[in-house]
Amino acid sequence: xxxxxxxxxxxxxxxxxxxxxxxxxxxxxxxxxxxxxxxxxxxxxxxxxxxxxxxxxxxxxxxxxxxxxxxxxxxxxxxxxxxxxxxxx
Length: 89
Known about the structure:
With 89 residues, the chain is mainly α. The chain has one domain. It has helices at residues 7-25, 30-47, 52-67.
């Protein structure tokens, strides 16, 4: 099964999704989103708020969700402006 069933897990998924969308609105990269999500999931794991099975399922779903660019919209609602390209030249 690929969906979350427990309300607590669903709330954490939604909170993480909202935070990641806000980070993309500020032009953070996918790797930065991954670091943020890893920290969130690690803290959640340490707090033991979710059953182990629900925690593992949440981690798998978040992993796929962050890797899928269609999960996000750009700051202006345009996917072509999703990530800010830094010019180091």
